[in-house]
Amino acid sequence: MLSPAAREQILALCDRYPEGKRKSAVMDALFIAQGEQGYLSPETFREIAELLHLAPVHVAAVATFYTMYEKEPVGKHIIDICCNISCLLRGSSEIIAHLEQRLGITRGETTPDGLITVREAECIGACSQAPAGQVNYRFFEHLTIEKVDEILDQLQAGKALVSPEEVTHG
Amino acid sequence: MAERRVLTEHLRTPNAYQLDTWQANGGYSSLPTLFARQPAEWVEEVKTSGLVGRGGAGFPTGTKWSFLAKGTGHPTYLVVNADESEPGTCHDRQLLTHLPHLMIEGIICACWAIEAHHAFIYIRGEYAYAAERLEAAIAEAHAAGLLGQTVDGHDFPLRITVHRGAGAYICGEETALLSSLEGDRGQPRMKPPFPAVAGLYGAPTIVNNAQTICSIPFIVRNGGEWFAGINLEPESKSPGPRIVSVSGHVERPGLYELENGTPFREIIYDICGGIPNGRDLKAVIPGGSSMPMLPKDVILECTTSFESIREHGSHAGSGAIIVMDDTTHIPTASWRIAKFYAHESCGKCTPCREGNPWSVKILERMLSGKGDARDLRMLDDICDSMERNSFCALGIAAAWALAGGLRHFRHEFAALIDNPGDVPGYPSPPTYTYIR
């Protein structure tokens, strides 16, 4: 069940769109539900459908179209390493291989303690700062083995990570 | 030098994302000029500027605005396409993160010109932090009377809604974006009707790229003629400053705002410092991974004008310049790009949905030394079929990307079949999808 706060937030989304166009709110509604529950289940689709006056199958159809909606449990932290062309040219293969080796998992998997999921991402829009990745959808750029180790150390020690994008300019 | 910082002038100014800093640096100074003239005059001014869409198709912005259907009984909407997802392209994220008020100023200008009172910014889901910055800037603008029932004291109600995508390249295609914004799966729609006639919620809608919108305030401030004059090739019809994202094998990859017609030779060797490690240039993708790559001798004859790149067999696309040195194995690079399109095909039409995974499968077969003499011709056939028969530009883009490599570096593909044991190890492929 979604919390009353989440339900309220989802209903409030409707005000962002013209009257009668509450279907538009479904994408953000899915993000809100995922933020609370970690991933999206058929039960959640039904709840969102009810709130937005949609068919549950429509909510499921939207959720399964987009890659950022998790349909299965994932780790507490998600590390996405871009492996598309610009990052590939600057060594992303070595970066993701190092993550796999240190965590003992293969891309797409989660560590047994449920802490970290590692994934190969498509272009994330940090091509000029390659190789790049995202941790919980915050950017980390110019990655090196050392930087990746630092990030893992922080996450494993339960410390908060601050993405350079929040502090640097351009 | 052909660098010309207009949109990016304050990209590195500390705190330029905040309203007071933005205003202290000339932000929102376009508004008095804007409201002093009628909307239709601004459509003409933007036509005079010669501004063409920065997203990839390069359609003249003022002309697009003039196509808006009038008297439909529906409201008019502006939709900003900030779903920047074309591999190699990374400048809109910086604009949105560091200069969100420039985006708002651009939206005010565009909405006045097209007489819209509700604008949407469709921002890709991965740009979560940029979206937060935008929301905060919109709240600041509301509090300062720059948005809301009046804009800067003028009787012109305007609101902006930020709509986050959730990871789908296809949503950069304008009709797929509108589907997504309406709360559906992001699949493209048949054109016509074009969005200017029947777009968002069936209402007349202008969809403009983020950088296009960010260019408008400077046209308002300085005039269309000024913008049209930022052009090293007077006969070129793609004038103005344009931000390019340079990535790959150069000493200084980054964002550079350039005058139209800047030679690639200057971009690669002067502005970006040349090829690292004493290597030689091999090929360049001039406009995002969809555009055909060009070999060294061809690209070094090109400038950034749309005409120059087109004459040489590619397109300016999104303005993403991907540089590859002589260590790059072109079939491996082509395979990685093909894999992207296979992942992102929306599944609506058969040529793209089937063609992309098949081209990946064939490339993986070749790269793992199991290629067949028929494989090259089969890749040609797939490219041809996707280019001719795909429903939207995604399938066409995928075909162009692969065909460019096949055209200029065919010998490297052929070598995989002739000497199957001899597959270069660089760049080392991440993972094969189909062959393990």
Write a brief caption for the model.
The complex is a heterodimer of chains A (170) and B (436). With 170 residues, chain A is an alpha+beta fold.
Report what the structure shows:
The complex is a heterodimer of chains A (170) and B (436). Chain A contains seven helices and four strands, in the order H-H-H-H-E-H-H-E-E-E-H. Chain A is α+β, with helices and mostly antiparallel strands. Chain A has two domains: 62 residues, Arc Repressor Mutant, subunit A (Orthogonal Bundle); 93 residues, Glutaredoxin, CATH 3.40.30. Chain A has a four-stranded mixed β-sheet, covered by helices on one side. Chain B is α/β, with parallel strands linked by helices. In chain B, a hairpin with a 5-residue loop joins strand 5 and strand 6. The interface between A and B is large, with 52 and 68 residues.
SSE topology sketch:
The complex is a heterodimer of chains A (170) and B (436).
Chain A lengths: L3 H10 L12 H12 L4 H11 L3 H8 L13 E6 L2 H5 L2 H12 L12 E6 L11 E3 L2 E3 L4 H12 L14
Parallel strand pairs in A: 1-2
Antiparallel strand pairs in A: 1-3, 3-4
Helix pairs in contact in A: 1-2, 2-3, 3-4
Chain B lengths: L18 H6 L5 H6 L3 H11 L11 H6 L10 E6 L8 H8 L1 H15 L3 E6 L4 H16 L15 E6 L9 H8 L23 E5 H13 L1 H5 L12 E8 L5 E6 L4 H8 L9 E5 L8 E2 H4 L6 H6 L8 E6 L4 H15 L5 H18 L7 H15 L3 H16 L1 H9 L18
Parallel strand pairs in B: 1-2, 1-4, 2-3, 5-9
Antiparallel strand pairs in B: 5-6, 7-8, 7-9
Helix pairs in contact in B: 5-6, 5-7, 6-9, 14-15, 14-17, 15-16, 15-17, 16-17
- In total, how many domains does the architecture of chain A comprise? 2
Helix content of chain A: 40-55%
Q: How much of the sequence of chain B is in beta strands?
A: 5-15%
Give start-end ranges of low-pLDDT stretches of chain A.
none
**Sheet with most strands of chain B:** 5 strands, mixed
Tell me the radius of gyration of chain A.
18 Å
CATH topology of the largest domain in chain A: Glutaredoxin
Indicate the multimeric state: heterodimer
Structure class of chain B: alpha/beta
How would you write the strand order of the largest sheet of chain B? 6-5-9-7-8
- CATH architecture label name of the largest domain in chain A: 3-Layer(aba) Sandwich
- How does the overall form of chain B come out from the CA principal axes? globular
- The helix/strand order of chain A is HHHHEHHEEEH
Helical amount of chain B? 40-55%
